[in-house]
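Exercise: predict the fold of this chain.
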Amino acid sequence: MSNKKIGKFPFTKGIYKDMYRNRLWTMRQYAGFSSVSESNKRYLSLLESGVSGLSVAFDLPTQMGYDSNDDMSYGEIGKSGVPISTPEDIESLFNQIDLEKVSVSMTINSTASILLAFYISLAKKRGYSLEKLRGTLQNDILKEYIARGTYIFPINHSLRLTTDIFEYCQQNLPNWNSISVSGYHIREAGSTAVQELAFTFANAITYLEAAKTAGIDIEKLTTQISFFFNSHRNFFEEIAKFRAAREIWAHIVRDRFKITNIKSQLCRFHVQTAGSTLTAQQIENNTPRTTLQSLAAVLGGAQSIHTNGKDEALSLPSEKNALSALRIQQVIAYESGIPEFIDPVGDSSLIDSMTKDMAEQVNAKIDDMLAKGGVEKLIQNGTIQNEISESSIKFQNDLDDKKAIVIGVNKFISKDQIEEKNKPQLAEDRLAIIENFKSSRNEKNAANALALLKEKAKTNENLMPYIIECSDHQCTLGEISSSLKKIFGEYSL
């Protein structure tokens, strides 16, 4: 990317000089179904329909480090996304998909190192050049302690794995974003727009400080960091939030970390429409909601966008509704004329004022958090989690008092019954798949790889090569996670 194509510091109007005139945002649809084969079919369908990037949703056991045949996985296999337990699962997931041509985003955190290792094993098996692989690993473990709860290890060990991924990607995957710092889930947990940005950027500062301590080139790292934000209810506030985000990050990188590389100062971000705003009542109302939220993301200058299906308050979206959600973005992109203009609403006095106010509030909050000891301390004492809970409770109280309106829920209510959707049936016998996988591998090689990983976990060495070696020797996600737990222990509140 030539510096001539980059916008002007602090990039309030956009990170690129001509924004969407030269290149539209990536239309990335998030999908993961109850089976690996069904997920693969959906990915192939999405690519055929015009999606330019894939985003993988994993089920809860995969996120928590359990194989599908583990007792802890019972009742959760394939519910919230695709179950991945083995390197063969990843191979089947991306069957007939050229990974050198498709950008892949993986929403995974505690087990990010393992899923990345599986992906790398597949790439090597297919003869791909690692330098040509493009994608993003969420790898944002701090927000799991704050908002989602899918953590495994104590915070210091989790940060070690995060920085190991940073270092490995710098050396081997130059076109891969090694972290996507996520405000999305913080907002879904009930935070305000200000809290979403403040907590997200405070987390990013923590990652950069950890990387700096580990001896990683943070100037190079900042060119690989991306962000993941929520597009919520308040149309103008969201546009201002995205514009303010670019300003805030540019100043953090330049002023706090003294990095003058203009590419490091760019706040590149993916946006997903707000799942928490979708209603099970009158699901047709969700279409205009996500349309407005998508439009806010475009007017705010996002680099990639996912639009939720109208039925996602009930279950994973049907193929028809996922396609309709994609069409929302395509209509904005090709029919509205909006991409012809750079920051088309930025000269509005309303948007300008809201952007400045948002930036001031967020910066003040970040400074306050750092003065109180930083993110790790505030997670440990529950301060951040309590703030989000209070914001969530306030919003619910506003709904109950009708100070906030949700159509179909507390105003213009119909007597229509909520449509019950059948839960997805597991189309594959996961237990048999894993048993067959293990029976065909060299058990001695797998055991030796796991033993070596445990020994290296006791040192300060980068663990990514050893996790990849475990993957190459056909170890399962659960086996790798369990081996690390024996050395690192588990996090408890």
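Check your answer against the key: The chain is about 50% helix and 10% strand.
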